[in-house]
Fold this sequence. Notes:
With 309 residues, the protein is α/β, with parallel strands linked by helices. The protein has helices at residues 18-33, 52-64, 88-100, 111-124, 139-147, 195-205, 221-231, 261-267, 271-280, 294-300, and strands at 5-8, 37-40, 104-107, 153-156, 163-168, 172-177, 185-187, 210-214, 237-241. The chain is built from ten helices and nine strands.
Amino acid sequence: MKxxxxxxxxxxxxxxxxxxxxxxxxxxxxxxxxxxxxxxxIDDTDLERSTSESLENILSSLRWLGLDWxxxxxxxxxxxxxxxxxxxxxxxxxxxxxxREKKAYRCFCTPEELEIRREAARKKGLPLKYDGRCRxxxxxxxxxxxxxxxxxxxxxxxxxxxxxxxxxxxRGDVTFGADVFDDFVLxxxxxxxTYNFACAIxxxxxxxxxxxxxxxxxxxxxxxxxxxxxxxFSIPTFAHVPMILAPDRSKLSKRHGATSVDxxxxxxxxxxxxxNYLALLGWSPEGTDEIMSRETLLKEFDLARVSRN
Length: 309
Ligand code: GLU
């Protein structure tokens, strides 16, 4: 059987949220249960919003909850570095490969031009998709613009037809029409990879077997599949866990009370209590026990029994 490798990939743009803690915990449980590896990857390509204080908070909250990672910041590992901001050469290299293989192209359209075209499409009630006009720039035209220092993004040359199906352990098969996706951006004009591009590359290079993450990323998954296919990478198994919602069914936020692990810690909750409670949010054991030790949870947890909502 394939070695199980899962990852938790927080963006260090705030304290560890209770929803993130549950995602981390489900990944940890799955890894420990299967004798696999739990990787901690830091998605810090948003340089403006990422802070070292947030990273510190995430690491210390995970430690407090007893969710130890086998590879990642401080732990090291053979597939590092584990902070995306230190992997920019890797993304650049893969983007250049796609350009050479004509699976991606340079787009010199400015944000203003794109906005004008989007506005026109909006008025006509058309889908707000990129029209692919830079697909056909000649090598000379491209060279000229690059020589003149014109910034460019790199887009996927997306010829997908029909549908894209995500095989999800929790949700079953989820199918998206391929026509929803345009030639979306892989590398922004500032040289930074988009979330989907970096994620697909890292999941592959870090040999991730199962991507267990929040449901809000389900709609990104077809894009990651298209990217992986273009790069010739295999597709991991996906499991999208339901979001933790507030009683009014909106996304849990500050106005509902405590949201970060830190706040619960300060209020005096014990890590065992938080872990027990998180386990039962979206998952239930076969029996009626509600107070379960970490050992029992390890024995009983079943990813496929996580509820869809
Ligand atoms: N950085 C993303 C987040 O925090 C990771 C999503 C993923 O697991 O792919 O939501």
